[in-house]
Amino acid sequence: MKIEGEGQLLRIFISEDKQWEGKPLYEAILYLAKEQSIAGVTVLRGFMGFGAHSRIRTTKILRLSDDLPVVIEIVDKEEKINTLLPLLDTMVTEGMMTLERANIIVYRTPNHEDE
Amino acid sequence: MRWNLLKLGIIGLGGFIGAIARYTLSGVAQQMFNTSFPIGTLFVNILGCILLGSIMTLVQDYSYFTPSIRLFITVGILGALTTFSTFGYETVELFLAQETYLAILNIIGNVVLGILSVWLGSSLIRLIAK
Q1: Tens digits of per-residue pLDDT, B36-87?
Q2: What is the pTM of this model?
Q3: Residue A86, Cβ neighbours under 10 Å: how many?
Q4: Does A112 touch chain B if contact means CB atoms closer than 8 Å?
Q5: What is d(CA B43, CA B48) in angstroms, rounded to the nearest whole number?
Q6: pLDDT in tens, A20-58
Q7: What is Dmax (Cα atoms) for chain A?
């Protein structure tokens, strides 16, 4: 797969303990994106943050470390991202999603040149 | 709401195991060394600190354990085994964040005020009972 030029970066902010059909929500989103043949997904866990409820989560204080922030970054062309959005809307019942333009400069695998 | 209740259940189950482990292990250590020094308490405190330090490093650096398993082990089992492990962990975190002033305040607050509070509680009861 070769993607260049204008794309979109979809960022989803959720907490680590959110579940979807018995598995972690971030994992469910990653597999959903894979099923939809999305170009790439990265899941990152933060060590400090807060969301709409304004409760700080941090690894520094054990009592506040049980649901750390998770950020899922999804990059692809606008039309592919648009197919994901309605599905994500039902899955992300708490959290935030942001969408921004991304200029894809490089997207390659080690054997890209052999293809 | 359901997840919050589940969390309490997970902590309670861990606490049940941790409290029994504390009672058993501190008793065994105390009897093993046959001394008037409270070595049983020291033993569970040190054991709890080693375990909490190891588990939280596995969580932070290697993404081990889901939030519910973490809650079960760290807050439930280790919390009941010894709250000293939480104190130790949070103090180390403050030192690592270079918040030395807060780390020292945490040590003084917990150790010195903790000991003074035992004495205060004891004195208050004696005063009331007079």
Answers
A1: 899 999 999 999 999 999 999 998 888 888 889 999 999 999 999 999 999 9
A2: 0.79
A3: 8
A4: no
A5: 8
A6: 998 899 999 999 999 999 999 999 999 999 988 888 999
A7: 51
> Number of residue pairs across A and B with CB atoms under 8 Å?
38
Measured distance CA(A65)–CA(A54) in Å, rounded: 15
Centroid of chain to Cα B44: 9
Q: Phi first, then psi: what are they for A16, rounded to 5°? A: -60, -30
Contact residues on chain A for B59, CB-CB shorter than 8 A: 59, 65
Residues of B in contact with A60 (CB under 8 A): 90, 93-94, 97
Q: What is the mean pLDDT of chain B?
A: 93
Q: Which pLDDT score, from 0 to 100, does residue A31 have?
A: 96
Concatenate the DSSP letters of all residues of B73-128 into one string: IIIIIHHHH-THHHHHHHHHHHHHTT-HHHHHHHHIIIIIHHHHHHHHHHHHHHHH
Q: For chain B, percent helix, then strand, then coil, each to nearest 5?
A: 90, 0, 10
User: Per residue in A50-61, pLDDT tens?
Assistant: 988 888 999 888
Beta bridge partners of A100: A9
Is A97 strand, coil or helix? strand
- CATH code for the part of the protein at A2-107: 3.30.70.120
Beta carbons of B67 and A66 less than 8 angstroms apart: yes
Domain boundaries, chain A: 2-107
> Is B86's CB within 8 Å of A47's CB?
no
Amino acid at A28: A
ipTM over 0.85: no
